[in-house]
Amino acid sequence: MKIKLNNYIGMAAVLLLSLQACKKDFLDKQPITQVTPDKAFSDAEAAEKLIQGVYDGMYIDYFIWDYMTNGDVTSDNAYAGGDNSANFQINDFTTNSTNGNLGRDWSGLYTTIKNANLVLDNVPNIEDPALDEGNRRNQILAEARAIRAYSYFHLVRLWGPVPLVVKVPANINEMQPARASVDEVYAQIIEDLDFAVANARTSAPNKGFITQGVAHAILAQVYAALPTPNWAKVLEETNATIASGYSLFGSYDGLFQMANENNSESIWEMQYDGWSGAHGNWMPSVIVGSGWKKFNTPSVDLVKAFDSEGDDIRKNSSIKFIDASTEAWSDSYWSKDSYPFINKYRYDDKNNAYFIRLAEIILLKAEALNELSATGWLQAKPLVDQIRGRVNLLGTTAITQASMRAAILKERRLELAFEGYRWFDLLRTKTAVTTMNAETDADGKKLHSITEADLLWPIPQAEVDRNPNL
Asked: RagB/SusD domain spans which residues (predicted)?
């Protein structure tokens, strides 16, 4: 959906009629189109359809695909690939306000926020005792608030100060909000997630739903990403996440096999059932295959990082090299007779994708321990070694706070490649400029020359034109 922020308000019935029906456990509610305008907010069934509409509304470019482009192509993990000028701008740090990706990402994230706000504005007022059985009303509100918080978490890291909209606008002035400060946005994110921690379900039919564990995990990420990280809270929230019943999956490569979807390590993952079902995942088809040059090509620098660590297991699970010598396209970075493609998404339209998994939270806990004291590296080491041990690597050699800081950042890169984390890790550790300016191609040629001014995106021009307060 391409609904712009200033079109945020509208008839609730129009929104409801626009959302899709869903068919599997994650998507098993009655069709949203069966909610008529006069019954849209009248009973528990309608409330369930409203929150289902929020989940359905996440099947958009941002959460299917762009989150990974933004996290990996912007960083030193991948090149733009393909032939899309918007992606080239992101790769080259020449992004301007007319970039199409920026427009659709802004729109998609604010549409998700709008959908969540419809739930938050209306579900509290539904007079149906069934909603209060088993705390279901508050669970629904918790799910909506967590998804709203997650959307704002992406917005604030990409754009910095952004409009903070926490209710359905009632008039033209509310439809043209000014930008809130970064601190104000983070305060709202934390407030929403604290509510979710207190009220969300402890378990759900699959890993596509918001639970308390998901809320704890997002909170841990948020506290680490604050302008001044709160490492004590990161440690508190990572411990709470780990205590929620997750465990590392035995095989790293098994994490990315369809038979192991919704596994013990998964905290939150997008659920796909293919084009014959309710939602197909088109990301695999645009990152690997023949016929045209695919997007998000693994970088020379990332391959070197895997090789220098002797990390064959994670390298082979993340990247596969294919003979593309007969393809008509050309490439500036790689020989086509052994050309790299992303390998974590292997199953066409049915491939689930992780938003958060336990290994990331364990490494975030290690980071918190290391930052909390000069000798915290001693406590962090067993956690880092646990992640390395799964892929048959020896323990880290880090023996100081500084060397452990670098070791954790490297470990996160190799563990989480192509899962949308790398750029945001570089931003929050304040290493983005130095890291990107040090990246070279196979011939040693430097690829970037950026400054702090290049780290945030410009507001999409179409939004500025519509909203003078931006």
From this structure: 344-470
Over 168-232, what HEC string results? CCCCCCCCCCCECCHHHHHHHHHHHHHHHHHHCCCCCCCCCCCCHHHHHHHHHHHHHHCCCCCHH
Tokens at 148, concatenated: 């709203």
CATH number for position 362: 1.25.40.390
Q: Which one, of 124, 146, 141, lies nearest residue 192 by Cα?
A: 146
User: pLDDT tens digits, the chain, 470 residues: what are they?
Assistant: 333 334 343 333 333 333 333 333 333 333 333 344 445 678 999 999 999 999 999 999 999 999 999 999 999 999 999 999 999 999 999 999 999 999 999 999 999 999 999 999 999 999 999 999 999 999 999 999 999 999 999 999 999 999 999 999 988 888 999 999 999 999 999 999 999 999 999 999 999 999 999 999 999 999 999 999 999 999 999 999 999 999 999 999 999 999 999 999 999 999 999 999 999 999 999 999 999 999 999 999 999 999 999 999 999 999 999 999 999 999 999 999 999 999 999 999 999 999 999 999 999 999 999 999 999 999 999 999 999 999 999 999 999 999 999 999 999 999 999 999 999 999 999 999 999 999 999 999 999 999 999 999 999 999 999 999 99
Beta bridge partners of 339: 322
Query: Does residue 370 fall inside a structural domain?
Result: yes
Q: What total of structural domains would you count in the chain? A: 1
Sign of the torsion angle spanned by Cα atoms 332, 334, 335, 336: negative
Q: What is the DSSP letter of 299?
A: P
Domain containing 49 equals 12-256+355-447
Asked whether residue 341 is domain-assigned, the answer is: no
Cβ–Cβ < 8 Å for 99, 134: no
Residue 316 lies in a domain: no
Contact (CB, 8 A) for 112 and 54: yes
19: left (phi over 0), alpha (psi -120 to 50) or beta: beta
From its phi and psi, is residue 160 left (phi > 0), alpha (psi between -120 and 50) or beta? left
For the chain, how many helices (H) and strands (E)? 19, 6
- Distance separating alpha carbons of residues 256 and 356, to the nearest angstrom: 13
User: For residue 399, is it within any domain?
Assistant: yes
